[in-house]
């Protein structure tokens, strides 16, 4: 569902399941050092945010809440992103 949603919203440069293709796309970008490169910025942000999410979930796993806290935080973040996307993302006009 995440892959289909990212394709539907037009963010084809962000694979949501693996980082390997993001690394390859990031390093193979001809405009890697350009000043204004939106796709590069999204790919770099995806790498940084995935790493931050892994660190935060590891920290939460070691807390008293354990796996349940990680799952509830993940569900909450996905719900907020879904609500934000469907509320504020501009729709396509035909």
From TrEMBL:
Query: What organism, scientifically named, is this protein from?
Result: Aureobasidium vineae
Q: What is this protein's name?
A: Uncharacterized protein
Do the record's keywords include Transmembrane?
A: yes
The record's keywords, sorted A to Z, are:
Membrane, Transmembrane, Transmembrane helix
Its lineage reads:
Eukaryota, Fungi, Dikarya, Ascomycota, Pezizomycotina
Q: Which InterPro entries match?
A: DUF1275 (IPR010699)
Q: Origin, by domain of life?
A: Eukaryota
Task: Give TM segment ranges.
Answer: 44-61, 67-88
């Amino acid at each position: 569902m995440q892959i289909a949603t990212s394709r539907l919203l037009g963010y084809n440069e962000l694979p949501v399941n693996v980082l390997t293709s993001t690394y390859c796309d990031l390093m193979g970008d001809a405009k890697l050092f350009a000043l204004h490169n939106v796709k590069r910025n999204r790919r770099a942000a995806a790498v940084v945010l995935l790493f931050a999410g892994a660190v935060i979930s590891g920290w939460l796993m070691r807390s008293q809440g354990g796996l349940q806290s990680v799952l509830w935080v993940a569900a909450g973040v996905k719900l907020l992103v879904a609500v934000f996307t469907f509320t504020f993302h501009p729709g396509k006009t035909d």
